[in-house]
Amino acid sequence: MQRTQTITLTRLLSQGGAIKPFPGSTPGICYLCGLATEEGYGEKPSGNFTAWAQCYHGTVLCPECYAALKTPALRRSSWIAIPEQIIYLRDIDEPRALLRQVFIEPPDRPYAIYLTRGGQKQGWLSLLRYVNQGAQHFWVGVDWRDRPILLSPEYAVWALGLLGQLRPKISKAKLWGEEECDVADYAYASEAGLLDVLECAVKQRGDPRWEVMIYAAD
Ligand SMILES: [Zn+2]
Q1: Can you spell out the DSSP letters for 5-47?
Q2: Which of 19, 62, 69, 88 could form a disulfide bond with 30, CB atoms 3.0-4.6 angstroms apart?
Q3: pLDDT digits (tens, 9 = 90+) for 47-61
Q4: CA atoms of 199 and 163, how far apart (whole Å)
């Protein structure tokens, strides 16, 4: 009996039409996804990305990975990929609401989530072997950390609950830890009965899961 294999990210992207692979002519093992191909590309990917730590000892790029590297939209925008399509968050009206919905009720089929702050790094490469298959725990790829972040719907509900009480009054930079909360923030929290909530939120700084939730908060 054949073992069920997790789909690779670039094959998921290909299924959903996010990339358009064409067959190459060189057989080998793919540098990026580690799968064997008869129709690879012999050229090495350009050296302008930093994800070589994730790469396999391959000899070619498979058609899917080759096409994905040549698709700038994958690094320029945040996205959610499912087998039927890719949703670029910059193209929809309520991107953060959609993210929160996916975090709280993840799909019951293969999917991948990538979030970018800068739109420059090929940060999605960290997700090559991290396509989500279930709803209990799921990975989110981000361009501000080197590794995908493991989340759960329970954590999302908890963290988004905290953030919902503090936003928009307390800035995202302060919740993230890029700026310090000042006297006015604590005075506001005290007056609103949110001092415990603010202190709890400040303690979450540095947790990668917390950063993802700040990204998704309004
Ligand atoms: Zn590949």
Answers
A1: -PPPHHHHHHHTTSS-----SEEEEBTTT--EEEEEB-SPPPS
A2: 62
A3: 555 455 456 678 899
A4: 12
Q: Which residue has the tokens 């329970």?
A: 154
DSSP secondary-structure letter at 3?
Answer: P
114 alpha carbon – ligand 1 mean position (Å): 18
| 108 CA distance to ligand 1 middle (Å) | 24
Tokens of 104: 């709280």
CB within 8 Å of 169: residues ≥ 6 apart: 185, 188, 192
Query: What residues have CB less than 8 Å from 164, skipping those under 6 apart?
Result: 217
In whole numbers, what is the pLDDT of the chain averaged over residues?
91
Residues with CB under 5 A from ligand 1 (ion): 30, 32-33, 62, 65
Q: Rounded to two decimals, what is the model's pTM?
A: 0.92
Show the tokens assigned to 178.
Answer: 């890029």
